[in-house]
Amino acid sequence: MAPSGSRSIKRGCQRVLYWIPVLFIALIVAWSYYAYVLQLCIESIEDTGQKVVYLLVYHAIFIMFVWAYWQTIFTKPMNPLKEFHLSYSDKELLEREDRGESQQEILRRIAKDLPIYTRTNSGAIRFCDRCQLLKPDRCHHCSVCDKCILKMDHHCPWVNNCVGFSNYKYFMLFLAYSLLYCLFITATDLQYFIKFWTNGLPDTQAKFHILFLFFSASMFSVSLASLFTYHCWLVCKNRSTLEAVRAPVFRHGTDKNGFSLGVSKNFRQVFGDEVKYWPVPIFSSLGEGCSFPSCLVNLDPEQPSSPTGSNPANKGAAEGRQFPSKPLRESQSRLLTSTPSWTESDNAADKDKKGASNPGMTIENEA
């Protein structure tokens, strides 16, 4: 009992420590609110019209920033569906096999009816020993959360959460609104920051808040701008941070652009089809996170030859397998079936030519 109790205490202490970066950000934001609203706008700005405009714009950005940050922190990361977990009989069968090749044969048999196209560097089926499941494409095991996370991007200590399929849009909006928040404070505080050095401000405590507010907002703007630019590039390329570091491996080999569908479709895969939801921290990403369309044409021959759901002949098999548990919305289906090549730069003639010369060509799709 003692070792178990010590492990529980250790885990509890770790959970508390993990919240320290979030608490630090919360304190910085709370102080910035006090410094900007009370010390700058109310105490230092004399023009009433300017004061009202500043406060209205500031609170609009502040609300969106806090909302996006909250969603990023408290949105639970999505885990693989039950179809990817081993059954009790499969677990027993896997444990009885000593040789790695025999275990791979079992895993290949299980993966045959699942939309899994990525492999390990050695070409083996991606399997998680801790979660006892076959990893869907773009899924990775987080050592901090101790779970497999769908389309895992990274584990972010500043939100104490895994950034993945369920909250990546929120994370992008958090970066966007936090950058806008810092830039707005820097721009509106600049003239009073200059007055501080020219002795144009009253000798009160407000001038010190104005000074540090400008320094902190400008420094955070630089770091946030670089991070936001990097993740915008990832969205345009349809890559996660993990995939940018180590490209996904398919049956034919490594392909860093294996999931790229073109900039427009890549963006809509994260933010959705409906423009009105793009700036709002509510879930609008396409799909269910377990399978993703791909531009690849050399698919695993052990997998179904065409995407389930896009071919009426496969409808019965899909219904018997009950995968995935939630159907795509109509707008999502349009994105996933609109162009067979998934490359926006290809014209119709090229597609017809490729289809005629390679009748076995298929596209990975969300079931």
Automatic annotation (TrEMBL):
Keyword annotations of the record: Acyltransferase, Membrane, Transferase, Transmembrane, Transmembrane helix
Reaction equations catalysed: L-cysteinyl-[protein] + hexadecanoyl-CoA = S-hexadecanoyl-L-cysteinyl-[protein] + CoA
Pfam family, one: DHHC
InterPro entries per UniProt: Palmitoyltrfase_DHHC, PFA4/ZDH16/20/ERF2-like
Biased composition (Polar residues): 303-313, 333-346
Keyword Ion transport: no
Membrane protein topology class: Multi-pass membrane protein
GO CC term, one of those recorded: membrane
Region annotated Disordered, chain positions: 301-367
Domain of life: Eukaryota
EC code: 2.3.1.225
Stretches that traverse the bilayer: 16-36, 52-70, 170-188, 208-230
Residue stretches making up the Palmitoyltransferase DHHC domain: 125-245
Main location: membrane
Domain notes: The DHHC domain is required for palmitoyltransferase activity.
Family classification: Belongs to the DHHC palmitoyltransferase family.
Name recorded for this polypeptide: Palmitoyltransferase
Organism whose genome encodes this protein: Seriola lalandi dorsalis
Native organism taxonomy: Eukaryota, Metazoa, Chordata, Craniata, Vertebrata
